[in-house]
Design a protein that fits this description.
single chain, mainly alpha, 0% strand, elongated
Length: 105
């Protein structure tokens, strides 16, 4: 009925889409910049990597798959770095973290 490669590809892409949906939910539900940055940084990076990994499996071992692998490596370097820079700037500007009992922003 279905070949194993298409099942693996579909599973990777669906898992990636799941993480890409959970990230914005974390942006809406979490209370402050630091937790929101954590949610968006982790979920978006993992979601994009899983989707690209699904495309690599679908493509097979070709030059396009190598380019997609390089893109995953680039994402795993740049996305956490950008998230860290945003959070560090907020820390330097004395943005305080949310504490239980405070109103959400």
């Amino acid at each position: 009925m279905f070949d194993p490669v298409s099942i693996v590809v579909a599973a990777l892409i669906i898992m990636g889409l799941f993480f890409m949906i959970v990230g914005p939910i974390g942006l809406i539900r979490l209370p402050d910049l630091f937790t929101r940055a954590h949610a968006s940084g982790k979920c978006d990076t993992l979601g994009q990597a899983l989707i690209l990994l699904g495309l690599i499996v679908y493509e097979g071992f070709t030059f396009d798959a190598v380019k997609l692998l390089l893109l995953i490596i680039f994402l795993y370097i740049m996305s956490p770095t950008a998230t860290h820079a945003i959070v560090r700037a907020a820390h330097i500007l004395k943005y305080h973290a949310w504490k239980p009992g405070e109103e959400r922003e």
